From TrEMBL, chain A:
One Pfam family recorded for the sequence: BPD_transp_1
Compartmental location: Cell membrane
Principal subcellular localisation of the protein: membrane
This protein's name: Sugar ABC transporter permease
InterPro entries for this protein: ABC_transporter_permease, MetI-like, MetI-like_sf
Keyword tags: Cell membrane, Membrane, Transmembrane, Transmembrane helix, Transport
Keyword hit for Cell membrane: yes
Gene3D superfamilies the UniProt entry points to: MetI-like
UniProtKB/TrEMBL annotation, chain B:
Coiled-coil regions, chain positions: none
Top-level taxonomic group: Bacteria
UniProt keyword terms in alphabetical order: Cell membrane, Membrane, Transmembrane, Transmembrane helix, Transport
Residues that span the membrane, as ranges: 12-37, 78-99, 111-133, 145-165, 186-205, 244-265
Family: Belongs to the binding-protein-dependent transport system permease family.
Location of this chain's protein in the cell: Cell membrane
Location of the ABC transmembrane type-1 domain: 74-265
Mode of membrane association: Multi-pass membrane protein
Identification of the protein by name: Carbohydrate ABC transporter permease
CDD domains associated with the record: TM_PBP2
One Pfam match: BPD_transp_1
Chief location category: membrane
Keyword Cytoplasm: no
């Protein structure tokens, strides 16, 4: 037996196994992202000549573009709401659905069901629920005899939260499954030991389960923030960024600049800012994952 | 005896909480069904959402299929999803195998390189892919669409499969090598089949996200006959007022294939996610 050398050499077979993934990944993700940064330095309508403008797309966005400012703030509000509301509810659901009881499989499927529907279709369903004349919510108040009507998505003061509520219905499925997987991985011995030591349910949850779910929290928070940064379908389908840009997101703003106003360079700059903001999430997540390795 | 009553109260509280949550969660589902079975005239005659219609408006379903071309959209989506899901998982499994079982110089670095894709928004690929595809003539092609989907699925697939492969005991490798397996056989005959729960999980999440993807599909596909379900369903939305009965019927039909996939693979769903939550 030869002693293992203290540096690893790449096995030639590894190239063969990694090649397909690497080729597709480079051509679909890496190259387009680089190309996007290149395009964002030009004024371009998508068809004619590109005109190099340096960083002025970025400067204009940050200096004078009020809609862009609204969009960034909306994305930040969305992130805060997802962390506090979506994650809490998903964890609550997971804790309940991790217990042993009859009908567990049914309820897991039931609460996961909204994830099965296309987000764009979810938006349309909720547009109907929010309908000020005969939608579910206002009909419901009428059925209860309460005289209260509210234009949920047409009122700029509440529209962002109304859109978030619609998205929430669908958004808890994925983190719920992740939490369930995390809870399942906790060894029953640990909990049994805690019960013997006299820890009650709530103590067990906060003192034992939550710390043991550290890895799960990391991936849930990372994926939720990422999803909040790129949220598009549900907003586009419900309000399209309106009324009066009250629900404008970076994604919807980017789309309208590129595909409606043909400001391709300017819109791409918005996309690049999204990437840069994602880096704030990526770097801690990656360093955590690398450390665990 | 006291312990028993306590247990029963606990169960009762559990069910009570569940039922309350279920009642809130059922609202949109109820709306979807209650709307799909009513005709336009039911709504105009002032029948509210809560009243039963005189007749179930099957017309909504028929219209969605005939006038709405729903089956064409579903067929297109099925082609793209059935290409994307197995091929994507296979490619991801190959990479995950290399990352867990073979000697690689910068193993963690390579993994992180692939992981970053999970965090990047599709919006950044939108313009470049549009430009490149129009040069290569890949706009309006199934290949063009599914190729991008495979690319965006790679990160999550590798994360899940790598996590799962890491949990497969190394003794299996040694036993396989002693039995004369080469690396390919080790992957194909031993490791990949063992990862069934992770594969089942990926089939569900991949199929879901492919079947329902809207942004890229709306940019890459303009041809009415090649649209996928989410893009196709949006053609049901009228410029001036939407016939919601017809739309909701369309949504209900289009959910069926995903539901079937979920029901087939859900047994391993939670177990398979374990690869993501254990670093």
């Amino acid at each position: 037996m030869k002693k293992k050398k203290n540096y690893t050499r790449t096995d030639k077979a590894a190239y063969f196994f990694l090649l397909p993934a690497a080729v597709i990944y480079l051509s679909v993700i890496v190259a387009p992202v680089c190309y996007s940064f290149f395009i964002s330095l030009f004024k371009w309508n998508g068809i004619g000549e590109k005109q190099f403008v340096g960083l002025s797309n970025y400067i204009n966005l940050f200096k004078g573009d009020k809609i862009f400012h609204t969009a960034i703030i909306n994305n930040l509000i969305w992130i805060v709401l997802t962390i506090f509301v979506t994650m809490t509810i998903a964890l609550l659901f997971a804790v309940i659905l991790s217990k042993q009881f009859r009908g567990r499989t049914f309820f897991r499927g039931f609460f996961y069901f909204p994830c099965v529907i296309a987000p764009i279709a979810v938006a349309i369903i909720w547009r109907w629920i929010y309908n000020p004349n005969i939608g579910f919510i206002n009909e419901f108040f009428k059925a209860l005899g309460i005289n209260f009507t509210q234009g949920w998505i047409s009122d700029p003061n509440v529209s962002l939260y109304a859109v978030f509520a619609a998205a929430l219905w669908q958004a808890i499925g994925q983190p719920m499954i992740l939490f369930l997987a995390g809870l399942q991985a906790i060894s029953p011995d640990v909990l049994e030991a805690a019960t013997i030591d006299g820890a009650n349910g709530i103590e067990q949850f906060f003192l034992i389960k939550v710390p043991l779910l550290k890895d799960t929290f990391v991936i849930v928070i990372a994926t939720l923030i990422v999803a909040a940064m790129k949220v598009y379908d549900v907003v586009q389908g419900l309000t399209g960024g309106g009324p009066n840009n009250a629900t404008q997101m970076l994604s919807t703003y980017m789309y309208s600049q590129v595909f409606q106003y043909n400001n391709v360079g300017y819109g791409t700059a918005v996309a690049c800012i999204m990437v840069l903001m994602m880096m704030i999430v990526i770097i801690p997540y990656v360093s955590f994952t690398a450390k665990e390795d | 005896m006291e312990g028993k009553t306590k247990k029963i109260t606990k169960k009762a509280v559990l069910y009570l909480v569940l039922i309350i949550l279920a009642l809130i969660w059922v609202v949109p589902m109820f709306t979807l069904v209650a709307t799909a079975i009513k005709s336009k005239s039911d709504f105009y005659s002032g029948a509210g959402l809560f009243s039963m219609p005189a007749h179930v408006a099957w017309d909504n379903f028929v219209n969605a299929i005939t006038k709405g071309r729903l089956f064409t959209y579903m067929k297109n989506d099925l082609i793209v999803s059935c290409l994307k899901v197995p091929l994507g998982i296979f490619i991801e499994a190959l990479a995950a195998f290399a990352l867990t079982r073979l000697e690689i110089r910068h193993k963690t670095g390579t993994f992180i390189f692939f992981l970053i894709g999970m965090m990047l928004p599709m919006q950044t690929a939108l313009v470049p892919i549009n430009v490149i595809y129009s040069k290569l003539g890949l706009l309006n092609s199934y290949f063009g669409l599914f190729y991008v989907y495979v690319g965006f699925g790679i990160s999550f697939g590798i994360l899940i499969l790598r996590g799962f492969f890491n949990g497969v005991p190394r003794e299996l490798d040694e036993a396989a090598y002693i039995d004369g397996c080469n690396k390919w056989q080790l992957f194909y005959k031993i490791i990949f089949p063992v990862a069934k729960p992770a594969v089942a999980t990926l089939i569900i999440t991949d199929f879901l996200s492919t079947w329902n993807e809207y942004l890229l599909a709306s940019v890459i596909i303009n041809d009415n006959m090649k649209k996928t379900v989410p893009v196709g369903i949006m053609t049901f939305v009228g410029e001036h007022g939407t016939d919601y009965g017809y739309l909701c019927a369309g949504v209900l039909i289009s959910v069926i294939p995903v539901l079937i996939v979920y029901l087939i693979f859900q047994r391993h769903f939670v177990e398979g996610m374990a690869g993501a939550v254990k670093a």
